[in-house]
Amino acid sequence: MAKFRITGATKTNIARAVLGATVLASGLGAHMGTAAAAEKLPVTAAAANTHDDDRAKRETKISVTAAQVLALAKSQVGISENAYGGGTPYQKWYAASQRAAETIARDGGTRAEYINAPWCAMFVSWVGEHTGARPQVGWDAYTVAYAKWFQANQRFGSVAKPGAVVFFSWSGSKDLDAINHVGFVEKDNGDGTISTVEGNTGNGKVEERIRPTSQVVGYGYPQYAG
């Protein structure tokens, strides 16, 4: 669901990460590392992905639109986790990614622990990667650090926009540290609700949902084309 951060150093943080069984046998062994959050908080947080942003601005013209990102996200609707809470393309991709090694260095843990871990943020990260918009969308598996990356890059706010990354707290808190879940905004419905595309929702699926804005902590704004 979302509050996922592997520390490996303490049982308390492992419990907080709500990790499932460590199921990864072969295929990932060559990649030492794990996936958890996108940046350590502001300074280290901004460091890794801020470099991605700066490099993208220097080397690549931003060409991915919000509509393209939402189209890929919506094409995944119906994909479900297995009985262990894992087995999705998003968890497998993230566990094998370069980002996993970076978050292991930050939080501890192993790549295998991501295979059955809460995957809403991994879904958002996967969509960014597979549309070519990762430098704008970011990548992480820990929702709190993901939101703080947007904040550190001055791209976090309170207005729902199509393609924005939306962060939820089921308690209604507006504190970033209370974030439980993340997805994409499809649209603001103008009636106190938003339409979204989310991973690891319902019974562990990718689904389109309608959410009350009272549960929204804030929105991260990728820099889209157009």
TrEMBL record:
Lineage top rank: taxon: Bacteria
Keywords from the UniProt entry: Signal
Pfam family of the protein (one): CHAP
Record carries keyword DNA-binding: no
Domain Peptidase C51: 95-223
Signal peptide range: 1-37
InterPro entries: CHAP_dom (IPR007921)
Name this protein carries in UniProt: CHAP domain-containing protein
Species annotation: Nonomuraea helvata
